[in-house]
Here is the input.
Amino acid sequence: MNTLKAIWNTTAARLSALYLVLFAICAGVLVIYMTSLSVSMLTTQTRNTISEEAGGLAQAYERGGLPFLVRVIEQRARQPGANLYLIATPDGRILTGNVQALQPGVLETDGWTEESFFYRRYGEAAANDTTGPHSAVALVLRLPNQMILLVGRDLGEPEQFRHVVRRSMVVAFGMMGLGALLIWFFVGRRALKRIDQLSEASRRIMGGDLSGRLPVSGSGDEFDRLSENLNTMLGRIAALNEGLKQVSDNIAHDLKTPLTRLRNRAESALAAKRSTREYREALEATIAESDQLIRTFNAILMISRLEAGNSAEPTTQVDLAETVRDVVELYEPLAEEKGVRLTASIAPVRAIAGNRELIGQALSNIVDNAIKYSAGVEGREAEVSVRLEQAGAANIISVTDDGPGIPQADRERVTERFVRLEASRNMPGSGLGLSLAKAVMTYHGGRLELDDARPGLTVRMVFPKADAGA
Amino acid sequence: MKILVIEDDREAAEYIQKAFYEAGHSADIAADGETGFSLADSGDYDVLVVDRMLPRRDGLSVIAQLRARGNDAPVLILSALGEVDDRVTGLRAGGDDYLTKPYAFSELLARTEALNRRSQSKDVETVYKVGDLELDRLSHTVKRAGREIVLQPREFRLLEYLMRHAGQVVTRTMLLENVWDYHFDPQTNVIDVHVSRLRAKIEKEFDSPVLHTVRGAGYMLKAGKGD
Here is the structure.
């Protein structure tokens, strides 16, 4: 019973029940319409037959009067068939014909009988009548000598037809219902079984086994497709989860180090008696360290906001050429101080829709990196070049340095949060600069590319086709 | 300088009040939007420091109503939200400056002093003078002890901003915002290098320093000895 109830609870079962009801209604209406149509056709046919008979009898009467009519009727009444003939006296006494008894009142009104009536055929005994009286329709005519002539036709055939239709209707509905029940049961049970498997698997996964996957039967049906999609989703969640874990590990590590340093510095300042100047220096170092921490936090927040993709950041028309000029001008003195030649080559490009602040910040992070890493190379003048150019429909800002570059294998990794290559561990920086630049590019529907500049590194900010309207 | 701090975090408010006092200013505290509004409306404050999220009434509506009533005291908005957009909506609501939590008090102090109503009057001056240093905003010339100093356009804007806030601490972020119009923290000491270039030009051949570095905070342009 529980299985049935569970099956009833499946969508498949409910849908088939709904279809069954709808189909039954349609079939019912159709059958009723068809029977009524055929019954009315049969009635018309019957009446036509009766009219013709009556016409023939009227001719016989005209030709030979009542005796000839009686003869004709007696002759016809002897023939087997569904036709009824009757001649009666004006007071309703039956003279001749093949009708033995009539439903009372039939002969009293002339013309077509309003409804079908009952009669008993001549020679049928009332006693052994198992089938009961027959029903018929008839035309009642009054002859000129006041005698009554009735011509009618038995309704047995149409009645039988109606019975046949009704019976076949019941049988058809019965089979349809049975079929629906069977289909319902098997389809429902199968669906239920698959769903139970899915629920079971998802319960396991919810229980903490994130590596678990939903069963795929291999038939490629909708359940398989659902399972495959859910499995892909689970894979993505697991990857994100892993990423999140890594990021929080990194955050913990990268923030723990400066916090520990901060604490130790304060502690050692308090540990011994020191001069005011020493206290002052310790406090200043503390402030500088805290500022760096705040900066790191701000960068993390900014990246998360950009990655969350909420477009609350205002979008305006950004002149990339101006942005490049601004940033190069901003960094030029720093580059000079570090012995790096910073050059810019700017092609005129159309303004793009974007956020000037974010693009400026991303570019300054990249330029900052380029200067920082190329400056470390001894023995020659380092060079960093910033180019703005149009390539096809895209606008590209590329920053090329001639520093050590980044090995192919690490290029993808360095844009992740807090990832710093071993070689640069001792350089100042939070490991967030490129992550922020990447987040900014993704936010603008573009991408950040890292490439080998032989020697050095090229970082390309690729802005997709500028939409002319915006 | 008389400052009103509308901030519901009591500990933070008291710390700010104490720090302002130590910097030679007086600060009143309002712990919610309604109190803040009535204090600001009746008192004569030089600068209002308003937190965005306040009980009873949010900071932006307090500012908007003050502005509607003709109160033009400079307002610095404090916010924990910190989207770029927040800054824009904040400034649009009538704020004059915007600072995102967490912030360094030195930053808050420098910005508050820069906002000070009395320093706003410098807007109309065409010539700034600090000691023997002179900057003419119309002819774009800079002179020190009567000798002309040639500056790049950006250096001129840098000096102009510093001179306008002469005697006040100006932070690196304030310089990036006001001279370059970018609102982010520069990664390394980019601003420092610009300042030292400028310093070389206005101090090198002259005997006394005017552009002082305030450690842990920023810079200050001041005649005579800095601290």
